[in-house]
Protein 1
Amino acid sequence: MTREKIVEGYRKGIVVLHGLIAHGRGEAFDYLLGEKTHGFADYAEKIVASYLVVSNRPIISVNGNYAALAPDEIAELSRVSGAYVEVNLFHRTEERIARIYEFLREHGVERILPPSCEKTYVPGLESKRGIVCREGIALADFVLLAIEDGDRTEALVGWGKKVAAIDLNPFSRTAQKATVTVVDDAIRATRNIIRYVEGLRGNREEAMRLIAGYDNKLVLKQAFKALLDRLEFAVSRGVL
Amino acid sequence: MTREKIVEGYRKGIVVLHGLIAHGRGEAFDYLLGEKTHGFADYAEKIVASYLVVSNRPIISVNGNYAALAPDEIAELSRVSGAYVEVNLFHRTEERIARIYEFLREHGVERILPPSCEKTYVPGLESKRGIVCREGIALADFVLLAIEDGDRTEALVGWGKKVAAIDLNPFSRTAQKATVTVVDDAIRATRNIIRYVEGLRGNREEAMRLIAGYDNKLVLKQAFKALLDRLEFAVSRGVL
C-alpha cells in the first residue's frame, strides 16, 4: 500500500523518478528493521513532538516523497502543532512545488507557505537546491523533514536550526547530522508525533525536560544495534 | 551512473515504476555490503559460468531492470557462452517485451528468442506472470536471471531447472530458492561471469568438478556474515 502511494505520487507529478529509487532504499532498511516502530524511534518521535511544542517558529519541510506518503498525517500534524508547512524540494521545479502545494491543500493542510513566498538561500547552498521561503525555513528555529538529502540537512544544522529528520537509513548523512533522527517509516513516524504533540502541548515544561535529557548519538547507536540484532537472528535462522 | 541507467531505462519504456523501487532496495544492500564483489559472490559467479559451460540448454532470462543496467554485458555473455537470451517480465506487456527485445538487439544481442516465440506456462504459475517461450525457458536445463520475483524463481526450481539468481538481497525469496545465488550488482556480476566463462569453456571437466563441490547454503551464510561484519564495523565507528 505504501508502495502504491509513492507510485501514484509519481503519476500525479509529485514524486520524481529518483524519489522512487530513494523509496526503495528506505524499504530495504524498513524490511531489515522488521517494518515496525522500534523503541528508539518512538522515543525520538516524542522528542520531535517536544520540539514542536516548545519552538517559536517550527516548520514542517515537505518534499515529494513525504507529501505522497503522508498528506493526511502532515495536515493533522500541522493542525495539532500549529506548525507551518513549507514545500521544499531537492529536485526543485516551480511546477512541482505548485502541484505539491495544491495536493497538500486538497488533503486539508491549511497552514502552508504559498509557492509565491519571498525566497532566500540556505547559507552554503546558493543554488536551486538551497532555495527556501524567507518566512518559512529561513526564520524557523526548528525544522522537521523527511527523506532529505544529507547536504541540505547539514546546511540547515550549520545555519543554527534544530533539525529533526525522518530517515529509515541510520547511516545516511541526514541521519548522522540531524539534531533528532527518527529511524522509522514516514507514515508511522508522523502518526506517533501527532499523538505525542496532543499529549505534550499543554505541558511545555515536560517537553523542555525531555529535550534536555535527549542524546541523539545514543538513539543512533540503538538503531545500529537493532539492525545488528535482526541480522544476527536472521543469520542464525537463515532467513529474515 | 548505475542509477542513471535505470532512470534512462524507465524513460525508454524498458523499466517500470516498480522496477525503480526494486532498484533502490538493491542499492541499499549494495551500500551495506560496501559496493564491491565479495569473495562469496565471486565464487558463485564462477559456478554460474560453470553451469553455462556444461548445460545443454542454458538460457539468460532478462527483465527490464537487467536489460537497462547491463545490455552490453548480456550481449557479451550470450556471445561467449552461446546461451540464448529470453526477455521475460513479471509486469508483462507485449509492448514492453518488444521494446526490450529491440533494445537488446541494438546492443548486439544476437542469440535471442523473438517476441513471437511459441508460448507456454511455468507449471504452477498459469497467469501472465508464468508465460515463457517453449523453445526458451521451458526447454532450458539452466536459467540465469537477475532481480527476479521469488514466486517465479521458486516455480522454475520446482520445474526441475537449475536456477542462478543475481540478487543483492541475500534474504529475498529468490536468493533463498535459487540453486546458485549471486549476491552482487548485476553489472559487476555479469562481467565476472563472462571472464569465468572464457576461462572454463575449454574445460568442461573443471566446470563439472566446481559444480559438484558447490554449496549454496554456505555462500548465503557468508553473505549474511559479510553484512553482519560490515554492520558491526559501522556500529563501532558510528558510520558505515
Protein 2
Amino acid sequence: MIIDIHGHTLAPPEVYQFQGRMVGSRGNPFAGFPKISDESIHKQLKKHVGLLQSVGTDLQFISPRPYLAMHSLQPSGMVHKWTEFVNNIIARQVELEPDYFRGVAGLPQSPGEDIRECLPELKRCMEELGFVGVQVNPDPMEGGHPTPPGLGDEYWYPLYEALVELDVPMLVHSAACCSPRESYTLHFINEESIAIMSLLDSNVFEDFPDLKVVVSHTGGAIPFQMGRFRAWRLRAGKENFDTALKKLYFDTCNYSKEALELAFKVIGPDNLLFGTELPGTGSVPNPETGYDFDNLKPVIDSIDFLTEEDRYKVYEGNAKRLYSRLNVTAAQTK
Amino acid sequence: MIIDIHGHTLAPPEVYQFQGRMVGSRGNPFAGFPKISDESIHKQLKKHVGLLQSVGTDLQFISPRPYLAMHSLQPSGMVHKWTEFVNNIIARQVELEPDYFRGVAGLPQSPGEDIRECLPELKRCMEELGFVGVQVNPDPMEGGHPTPPGLGDEYWYPLYEALVELDVPMLVHSAACCSPRESYTLHFINEESIAIMSLLDSNVFEDFPDLKVVVSHTGGAIPFQMGRFRAWRLRAGKENFDTALKKLYFDTCNYSKEALELAFKVIGPDNLLFGTELPGTGSVPNPETGYDFDNLKPVIDSIDFLTEEDRYKVYEGNAKRLYSRLNVTAAQTK
C-alpha cells in the first residue's frame, strides 16, 4: 500500500471566491459561509483521484493549501473562519472519497495570539471530522516582523500538550511569505531548517517525549548541511546531532534522486515517510525522466541501496505507526 | 597548490576590546583607533599559519569575521569605522605573512543606506590595500525588519557596477542574526538560499554578465532542493535551473562528504572553489574521521568520481581564474 502523507486539497473555485471576498471586506461583518455543492467538490476530487491513480498512490493525506493560509492577516477572526471553512471542505472530500483521502487539519494560527486559540479547531477536526493529523506553521508572521517564537519555545507548549493527548502527528509546513526577496516555496525550506534547529536545541522532546513531528520537504537544508551542525553542536558539548535528528520524522517531498539518496543516508528509512505534495509545485514533467517531478515512487524504487523492508516502511509502515488515528480498511490494504 | 578562498581573520583580543568599547559608547564621540602592535597581530597569525600548515593549505583568503560585522547597528558611522579598522588589520596580516594570506574586504553595509556608501571602502581595499575579493552581506538587517532588497534588486547595482569595473569576485556571506530562533550559522545557510534564488530570478547576469559571485557554504539549501526549483522554474517557463545555477560559483565549505558529493554532481567542478572557513565552526574533531571537520582536503581527495583535473580546478585553477587580482609568486606554486 502506498500512503502519501503530504498532499493538499484541490478545492473548487468557489472556495477561493469566498476567500477573496472575505479578505477584501476584512470579514467585517462576516457574511457567512457559501454553500458549495457536492457536485462542485466532486469535480475537483475526480481530477485529484485520477492523479493519485496515475502514480499508484492508494491513500493521500490532504490539508489546506499552506500558501493560502493567510495566517498573518488581521483581523484574526477572518483566519479562524477561513481555516474552519477549508477544514470543512476537506472533511467533505474525505467523506466523498474515503478510499483515497484522509484529512489533515489546518489551524487558525495568528501571530501574537495565544496558541490555545487554535485548540478548539484542532479538537473539532480530530474528534468530529475524523482527521488523522495537523499542519503547523512555524511562521504565522509569514516572513514579517517580529519573528515568531521558535518551535522550541514554550509558546507552543499548550499545542504540544494537546497533540500528545490526542496522539496527533504535526506536519511542519509554513505558509505564504511577505518578503519580496523570498518566494513562499523557498520560505518553506528556510522555515523547516529553522524549525528543526529550534526543536533540537530545546527541551521539547524531554518535556514531550511522545510528540510526533514530521518535517516537510525532507527537512529544508539540514540533511545537506549536517556537517556544519554536527560540528556546531559538538563544540557546544551538545548531544550528537545525528542522534538528535532521529527525534524527528521527515517526508520524501524532495524532487531529486541524489537528494533523496542523501536523505536516506542521513535520516534513514525509519524516519522517512512517503510524501509528494501532488498536485503542487512538482506537477510538471521532468525532462530527464519524462514523468512529473512529484511522481516520487519510481524515484524511490530506483534507489538501489534500499531494501524491500526500507521501502515498506517509507511507503506504508511508518505512516501506520505514526498516525494512530488512521484506520485503513482491509480492502485498502491489497 | 591549495588555495582556500574562504577564511576569516584571527584578530588579536585588543581588536574586539575596541569593538566592545566603541559599541558601548555608540562611537559617539569616536575616540580613534587603538594601536595594535605587530607582536600582538603576529601571535594570532602564528596560530593561524600553523593551522593552515597542519592541513596543507598554501594560501588562504581572509575577510572580517562575518558574525561580528554588526551591520544592523546604528549609528552606521560606527559600522564604517569598525569595517575600516578590521580591513586594516587584515592588510597588516597579509603584509606580515604574504606567503599564506590574501585579503578579502568587508564592506560597511548599513540597511537602508545607499550601497554607494560602501564604494570608497571597496576601492580603498582593492587599490590601496591590495585585497583580492570582497565579502557581501545579503542581509545587513541581520534578521531584522524590514527585510532588505534581494540581491537581484537594482538596489545593489552600483555595487555590481564597481565590482565589474574593478574585476572583484564577491563572496556572499551574511552576518549575525537578531532573531532568537535562528543562530547566525543557520542564518548564513538561509541567506545563501535566498541570495541564489533572488539572483537567478533577476536580470543581474544580463545586466552584469561579468559579475563574479561566489556563494558560501556550498549554496545553503539549494543543491539539496534542486528538484523543487527545477520544477518551480519549469512551471514558470523560465530558463533551466541547472543552466542558470552555472552563473554562480560556490565554495566547498560544507562539512560532510555525502553533501559534497551531491554538490559536485549538481554544481560541478568548474563552479566549485576550495573553501573551509578554517578556523571556525568546523574546527573540532569529527569523531568519524579523527580529524577536524574543516580539514576538507582529505574529504575531497576521497570522493572517488573526481578526476585529477577536477581536483586541480577546485583546489587552485578556479580561484586563479576568478580572482584576477591574485598574484601568486613562482615560489608559492610548487
